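Translate structure to sequence.
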């Protein structure tokens, strides 16, 4: 099938590369000329495991990029919308890109005779498809939903660092629409997947995405709360999480305690759902608590450093790990950033290293010292803070230096000589 994908960010690019690998002819559309050029030059504009190899194999035969939305929409049967829905100050999401792209697609569809399906991948609060996407597309295209125009909400559940793996082995596919023809068109793309396909209405599909991320974030804040209690009692939370996770009703996943969750999804999605609920007159107490516990975890880490060093001013601190998790170059909402800010305020002497996150953080904090390796940072410092679970941090020689671990990087019997964990 011919497919166009509007928005070549993380989600759009993975969707594009994945569908092209399945045999479809895919064109990515983006307003960013540099990004478009990079894709056509077979250079992925983001780092994601396996993406480079795939792009090198698929461009230009089955995957290309363009800035020309009209052409891409006219030559395809389905358009995936993968534009950003960034947060505003109180957590609500901005829908201006979504609104604009729906208008642009609708205007192109006005000149198209053959039926066309618009599939929404962007994370949007429940009600958005029904009240914004469908009316905008109908108004600008002059068509009606179910009569030449299809719209489906098809949320993504991709983890950065294993996004391609998640694309090809999903737990489920969710297709939400009031138009069965749109759902059936989307289903044909996913026939090779062996997972359940759940058909819902728009609102249910939109909410499944938010509820899934809120549930995972809740598990993390929950184990961090248990971890904070365990720490006060000298109990290793990792052992506790293992014991708890063996209950099949709970499961072992997302029970790693530490400095809290970051990234482009959990903080933003939980905030957006909380904001939506407040708008509706409901105070979502669990969601509030999930965010509150998460905000405090970096402070717990700082407390440990202060307890060890006393006054932080002028102290030489190695800070290992900037990205919000390993196997990505993404530092969005990374707990490392709030920890750095606090150290900078307290005038610590920082030596910073991360295998992939330095370029992004250097633009935010150009005045800080960035080391060429973890070992170099450790050698210059009197204390070490580990903030991302990069496997290479296990191999560093820490000697007698105190290592404070926010991510449980080491197996219990392989921990450095002087060591403390945030919740263990
Ligand atoms: C998440 C969701 O998992 C994915 O389904 C969604 O569509 C996009 O958001 P991602 O943000 O890439 O994916 O990373 P994820 O692996 O879920 O981790 C998010 C954050 O939680 C990271 O900062 C991670 O370090 C932290 N985390 C995760 C924990 O602190 N403990 C855990 O047990 C698991």
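Result:
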């Amino acid at each position: 099938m011919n497919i166009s994908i509007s928005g070549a960010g993380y989600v759009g690019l993975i969707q594009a590369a994945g569908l092209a690998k399945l045999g479809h002819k895919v064109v990515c559309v983006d307003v960013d000329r540099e990004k478009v050029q990079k894709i056509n030059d077979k250079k992925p504009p983001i780092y994601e495991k396996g993406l480079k190899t795939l792009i090198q194999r698929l461009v230009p035969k089955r995957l290309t990029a363009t800035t020309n939305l009209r052409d891409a929409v006219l030559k395809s049967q389905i358009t995936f919308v993968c534009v950003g829905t960034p947060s505003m100050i109180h957590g609500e999401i901005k829908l201006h890109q979504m609104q604009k792209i729906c208008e642009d697609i609708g205007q192109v569809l006005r000149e198209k005779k053959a039926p066309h399906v618009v599939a929404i991948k962007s994370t949007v609060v429940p009600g958005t498809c029904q009240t914004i996407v469908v009316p905008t597309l109908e108004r600008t295209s002059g068509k009606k939903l179910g009569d030449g125009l299809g719209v489906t909400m098809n949320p993504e559940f991709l983890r950065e660092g294993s996004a391609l793996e998640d694309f090809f082995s999903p737990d489920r596919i969710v297709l939400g629409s009031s138009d069965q023809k749109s759902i059936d068109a989307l289903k044909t793309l996913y026939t090779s997947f062996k997972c359940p396909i759940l058909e819902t209405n728009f609102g249910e599909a939109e909410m499944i995405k938010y509820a899934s991320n809120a549930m995972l974030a809740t598990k993390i804040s929950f184990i961090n709360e248990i971890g904070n209690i365990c720490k006060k009692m000298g109990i290793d939370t990792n052992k506790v999480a293992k014991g708890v996770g063996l209950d099949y009703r709970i499961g072992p996943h997302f029970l790693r305690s530490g400095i809290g969750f970051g990234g482009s999804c959990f903080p933003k999605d939980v905030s957006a759902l909380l904001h939506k609920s407040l708008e509706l007159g409901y105070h979502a107490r669990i969601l509030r608590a999930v965010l509150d516990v998460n905000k405090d975890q970096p402070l717990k880490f700082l407390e440990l450093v202060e307890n060890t060093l006393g006054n932080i001013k002028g102290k030489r601190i190695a800070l290992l790990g900037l990205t919000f998790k390993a196997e990505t170059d993404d530092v969005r909402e990374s707990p490392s950033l709030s920890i750095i800010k606090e150290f900078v305020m307290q005038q610590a002497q920082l030596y910073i290293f991360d295998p992939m996150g330095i370029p992004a953080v250097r633009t935010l904090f150009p005045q800080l010292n960035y080391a060429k390796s973890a070992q170099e940072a450790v050698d210059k410092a009197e204390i070490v803070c580990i903030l991302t679970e990069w496997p290479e941090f296990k191999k560093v020689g820490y000697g007698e230096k105190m290592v404070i671990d926010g991510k449980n990087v080491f197996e219990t019997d392989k921990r450095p000589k002087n060591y403390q964990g945030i919740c263990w």
